[in-house]
Amino acid sequence: MWCATPDSCRSLSGSVLPVAAARVVLPAALQGLDRQQMTAAIKSAPLGRVDRKIARLRYVERLPLPDIAAQTHYSRTAIGYRLKGIEKVFE
Known about the structure:
By secondary structure, the protein is mainly alpha-helical. The mean pLDDT is about 80. The chain has helices at about 35-45, 50-60, 65-70, 75-90; strands spanning about 1-5, 10, 15.
């Protein structure tokens, strides 16, 4: 077992172990929505395929940045920059 952050641990097979959800601050447009409504809002937003996946992983699945980076093959820093752009779409 190895941990990228204290919030995310992976087993030797690579699957994410449920340690704790990331502390996610939702954009105002997504606050108060349930998972299904949030997913629909992300799908209908003017986002590209990768940004849509990042938004879903962060806001719906509440994954920490290192786990999103691993799933999308982008750096953690790039995920942070993309999330800032995604947040602007939801303002």
